[in-house]
Amino acid sequence: MSAVPQPRSEPAAGEVIVKAERLSKYFDVSPPWLNRVLERKGRQILRAVDGVSFDIKRGETLSLVGESGCGKSTVARLLVGLYTPTAGRVEFFGHDLREMNTASGRHLRQKLQMIFQDPYASLNPRWRVGDIIAEPLRAHGLMQDKQAIAARVDELLTLVRLAPADKEKYPHQFSGGQRQRLSIARALATHPEFLVCDEPTSALDVSVQAQVLNLMKELQRDLGLTYLFISHNLAVVHHISDRVGVMYLGKLVELAPKRTLFAAPRHPYTRMLLDAIPDLEMSGRARTPVAGEVPNPLNPPTGCTFHPRCPHANARCKSEVPVLKLVRHAAGESQVACHAVEEGRI
Ligand SMILES: Nc1ncnc2c1ncn2[C@@H]1O[C@H](COP(=O)(O)OP(=O)(O)O)[C@@H](O)[C@H]1O
Ligand code: SF4
Ligand SMILES: [Mg+2]
Fold first, then answer.
1. Ligand nearest to the CA of 77
2. Which of 72, 301, 310, 314 reaches 20 to 30 Å from 135, CA-CA?
3. Ligand 2 midpoint to CA 53 (Å)
4. In which band, very low, low, confident or very high, does the pLDDT at 286 lie, cut at 50, 70 and 90?
5. Ligand 1 pocket list (CB less than 6 A)
């Protein structure tokens, strides 16, 4: 196998390897110039991600949850360098991710990979599985020797509990769960440290979801992987995470260790999300559907953007944007962006 350039320094276990600092991504969704002039409309800027900060330690799984459109996939794309931040930065092994596009930063790129929701769309249907899995090895110039590549493909297929003989087949010959295993095998080809998984099991049946999640957990333990896991499904997040971040309209509203978050959700939105799922921790909580609709992101509410849906909103909530602050409570420590929590009202 060819030598893989190593990151500048190998961090110790538990050390932060990914850092998002006040990360923002705004999209200009303005109508064309002529329409704006004729209709007397200004530019329209959509704040898909707005000042999000978090750390991810080596070997842990940080999950991001929230309703559709809250900015999860945009964070995912920012973290693997598919989008450049409008403001803020992503640090990976102490390097700004922007360095990834320079010659000296190229080694960073193979250390991070992404797994998408729809494995069928991300696997070329006309290629044999062996070529699909080998593609990153060739693209990164890691291996040239045909036999070495074939051996690595066999190893990867075995790693994801498929058979080496499967490399002769095409993606359509596999089930949904098997196709997601193929995407995982391909993502692992370059020996990545960090995997961004954007709803990797959302398109699968519940029973298959559990198999893929368990495989991901085993791979994490065996290969020392670090995950950013994205899902709108709190049951999935409960299964896989060490820590959980809850997003609402482009912002992180709560960030806490999984047990703390599920046992003692602090933010009213987190409580609403948890009340809507089956009772995972057997706390005896009744099930209530998530109330209200997500506001139009082009015209977000003032102050705390959750205030139109919040049972605890007051005048301050309507005018002042709450910021993420550390809160100590009986069940542990959480970072929460809520005036009512800060004031001790709830
Ligand atoms: N390329 C883009 N151009 C314009 N708007 C976008 C683009 N990508 C995402 N958005 C908008 O940004 C917001 C966040 O989207 P996304 O990150 O996909 O959310 P999620 O993954 O949580 O459903 C949504 O309002 C979405 O419509
Ligand atoms: S800041 Fe106010 S509106 Fe926002 S979640 Fe807290 S109580 Fe509700
Ligand atoms: Mg998404």
1. 1
2. 72
3. 20
4. low
5. 27, 29, 46, 48, 66, 68-74, 297
**pLDDT (tens digit, 9 = 90+) per residue, 142-197?**
888 999 999 999 999 999 999 999 999 999 999 999 999 999 999 999 999 999 99
Looking at all shown ligands, the one closest to residue 71's CA atom is 1
**Taking a C-beta distance cutoff of 8 angstroms, is the pair 345, 311 a contact?**
no
Cβ atoms of residues 255 and 64 within 8 Å: no
Helix (H) or strand (E) holding 216, with range, is helix 206-223
Task: List pLDDT tens digits, range 35-59.
Answer: 888 888 888 999 999 999 999 999 9
Percent of the chain with pLDDT over 70: 93
- What is the Cα gyration radius of the chain? 22
Structural element, H or E, at residue 35: helix 33-38
Q: What is the pTM of this model?
A: 0.93
226-230 vs 243-248, strand pairing mode: unpaired
Nearest CA to ligand 1 atom 21: 73
Atom of ligand 2 nearest to the CA of 305: 4
Dihedral through CA 272, CA 275, CA 277, CA 278, nearest 10?
Answer: 170
Look at the block and give the residue holding tokens 């109508």.
Answer: 31
Q: Please work out whether the CB of residue 304 comes within 6 Å of at least one atom of ligand 2.
A: yes
DSSP 7-24: PSS-PPTT-EEEEEEEEE
Question: Are the CB atoms for 63 and 53 separated by under 8 Å?
Answer: no
Cα–Cα distance for residue pair 152/9, rounded to 1 Å = 26
> Among the atoms of ligand 1, which is closest to the Cα of residue 198?
21
Is residue 152 classed exposed, middle or buried when 0-12, 13-18 and 19+ CB atoms within 10 A define those classes? buried
The closest alpha carbon to 60, from 18, 21, 110, belongs to 18
